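name: query_chain
kind: protein
chains: 1
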Amino acid sequence: MNDTVDKLVIFLAKRDGIDKLVKTFQYVSKLVNWHVETTYPDLATRAKQWEVASGLSRKAFRTGRSLTGFNALRRSPGTTPGFRLLAVLANSGEMVYFFFDHFLWLARIGVIDGKYAKRMSFISAFGESVGYVFFVISDFILITRGLKAERKLLIEEKDSKEEIKKIRMDRIMRLMGVAANIADLIIALAEIEPNPFCNHTVTLGISGLVSAWAGWYRNWPSKT
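structure:
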């Protein structure tokens, strides 16, 4: 019990940890609002207010987050030209997403003219989608490389249990990343090109929770 509490404290001390918790609040309240909208209108209104408040607080908390993508670009990640290009495209998309998300937040809270909200939301979601696509491609490439390396170690039958364990853990983390990025891509597509599937409350709610909980898993302190 004490170990779990200690890990929770460490988790919530991270910016990403707080973001995933509040994101859980945001999308649980979205689903609650949809479920009780006709039967319990008062509860639905409270859930809607919680959803909006959570969404706005997440945007405020992400202030300056675009610098993360810029820093990744500055460091030029990747060991090969092709993979480096994927990393540049992915981080550029993420940087655009967070940068214009600041202006969307300012428009939503009335600091700048609200007429810009739709435009800022579209640009932010477009950059977000581009980033997610290339992050997913990069992760699949690294997962494939990991599988090849694991097979090679198993064939050689050397004392490589620790190495195999690291490869498998990395694969799990990357699969969690893929799940989160695809879920967030669905949410972004709902903004870029509204359609009955992506814009359905259940689709958005489940996608948001998948993203939040995959991120929760990735950021949860390890046992080591």
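note: The helical segments are 2-12, 15-36, 41-61, 66-74, 81-108, 117-156, 161-192, 201-219.
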